Amino acid sequence: MKKKIFVDGLTGTTGLKIHERLSLYSELDMITIDYDKRRDPNERARCLNEADIVFLCLPDDAAKEAVSLVTNPNTRIIDASTAYRTATDWAYGLPELSNAHRESIKVSKRVSNPGCHASAFNLSVYPLIHHKVMAPNYPVTCQSLTGYSGGGKSLIDKYEQNEGKNEYTKAPRPYGLTLNHKHLPEMTLRSGLAEAPIFIPILGNNYQGLAVMVSLHTKLLSKQISAKNIHELISEHYQNEKFVKVMPYADDTNLFDGAIDITVCNDTNNAEIFVFGNDALGSTVVMTRLDNLGKGASGAAIQNMNIMLGFEEDLHL
User: Fold this and answer.
1) CA-CA distances (angstroms) from residue 302 to 44, 54, 58, 111, 316?
2) 144: pLDDT confidence band, cut at 50, 70 and 90?
3) 206 and 223 both lie in a single domain
């Protein structure tokens, strides 16, 4: 019997991408809601409770409202908002972090889809803390260079307006300058840190693609370890993963004119991790690139659905 799927919030960037990916499945039946009834709580409740899997692609408050409408104990939810990413009774939807994460997703009725910045950050930092190379109280600093599509329709419109000179496209723009970005609680908790990192995201003039850069002073780590050793540790941690690839150490063939192209993983569910080091200076950078609309949003949601339904994890990805 086909599983029934409902996407609540179909018109947003993530909802549209999820729907596009779901259209590849013959194993699923989509529950649809009339456009003029999409805000009707009774109609939404009917769709939510009829589904085997619900994707919530809504603002935080609307996502919480949708969860409150679910009374069917068999309805399972994948929430793409920030609302439940630090909730202890929700599985965190980044299965590559550990076998325990993957098993939790497999059996859970409630899965919180990670944020794009947080996904790249946690893929970089979690292995270091898990393997006791980095202490939970390590003073982490990081930056993220990201495409503007992560800001949703409003920001996309600002970047793509064609009337005269567009100040948005003039140069990259660091933001989140209150140092309180909404992904910080998730980045802290799910990486295993005891204190929030200093995090500055930077908007680029590219539609999609993201790279998070985590800077480390190796002398401050819990173990005296070289950049190459860090690369080996992260490589071993992800050695069996389909969607996370640790790139070769000190290999310029994976660079573009000596630099990182943050768009290489676009339109995929892949994440690629680089480690760069200067042992003479005691400096290491761990950098993870992914598609903020793929592994950072819709791709991860579909991957989580595949795990929850017992499909091959990479089905239609």
Assistant:
1) 21, 11, 16, 12, 9
2) very high
3) yes
Please state the rounded mean pLDDT for residues 262-271: 97
Q: What is the pLDDT of residues 131-143, one digit of tens each?
A: 999 999 999 999 9
* 209 shares its domain with 281: yes
Q: What is the pLDDT of residue 249?
A: 95
Whether residue 132 sits in one domain with residue 184: yes
Q: Looking at the structure, tell me whether residues 278 and 184 fall in a common domain.
A: yes
Q: How does residue 100 score in pLDDT terms, banded at 50, 70 and 90?
A: very high
End-to-end Cα spacing for the chain: 22
299 class by beta-carbon count within 10 Å (0-12 exposed, 13-18 middle, 19+ buried): buried
Of the candidates 313, 258, 312, 262, the one whose C-alpha atom is nearest the C-alpha of residue 287 is 262
Residues 129 and 245 grouped into a single domain: yes
Residue from 94, 44, 85, 37 nearest 67 by CA:
44
Residue 92 lies in a domain: yes
3-class state of residue 162 by DSSP: coil
Question: What does the pLDDT read at residue 105?
Answer: 98
Say yes or no: 24 and 146 in one domain.
no
Q: Which residues are catalytic?
A: 116
Beta-bridge mates of residue 281: none
Range of the domain at 214: 116-292
